[in-house]
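REVIEWER CHECKLIST
Item 1: Sequence provided? yes
Item 2: Single chain? yes
Item 3: Sequence as submitted:
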Amino acid sequence: MKGVAFAPGHISAFFEPKYNASSLDRTGSRGAGINVTLGAMSRVRILPAPHFACEVRINRQPSDAPVTKHAIQILLDKAPFKVLVETTLDLPESQGFGMSGSGALSATLATSDVLGYSRDQAVRAAHYAEVQSRTGLGDVGASSIGGIEIRREPGLPPWGIVEHIPGNFEVVLCVIGKAIQTTRILSDKTRLVQIASTGRSCTKQLLEQPSLERLFSLGWEFTRKIGLAERQVLQAIEAARQVGMASMCMLGNSVFAVGNTPLLQKTLAQFGPVWVCGIDQTGARLIEG
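Item 4: Structure as written out by the authors:
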């Protein structure tokens, strides 16, 4: 039994962590971001087994993949299957591209398709796993929907409420420094207070005046205020802002930018490897074959 699914990468421009002690469905983040056409493709094979087991390979290499394995375990509730997951990631992990969330979501969607579970069950399992692993808060919900989104309320539907900013642009991505461990940031209570306060203000301002330009300007404000960006990341953003709009991917030593694509590519290539992608308007989905 085989299934294939794709989930777009998700870049947060800014966010406000929102934890609900009694409900993972209501836990997530408010904020805004962009879903991109580069993401995670998972091919899943499911075999009968005496007990639950899950093996994951990422980009052809065996991987611990704790978020994906936990998501599959939540979805199957220890049903006696052996799940073999082959995931291809288009972008680096731990650089603010939402790869752990899209990897888990593409795997649960493919598994659900094979076993007859619902899409909602697949999204919920991936969201729960990411929140519990502290590798992300809003990526799974955003990736499931697609587009340029404002997360008005945290969590999954019906509690999570998302609005969209229309638009379809090329997005230039650049990785500049070493990976940031999201778990460390999301476990730092002092840091989270500062992030929450700034993210709350940015979300409020964007909802009052929703536009892509406003998203980038508020993202740049958020980047400067929370103080996570390394000097080279700030230099790259400043350089990119001369030829377009740019900000830091949360949470990664990476930049996303929109504008004159060839000039942005040339400018950002001085700082690190560059990718060009589009905005994924569809969200996570099953793939034939």
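Item 5: Key structural point noted by reviewer: Residues 189-208 form the longest helix (20 residues).
Item 6: Recommendation: ____
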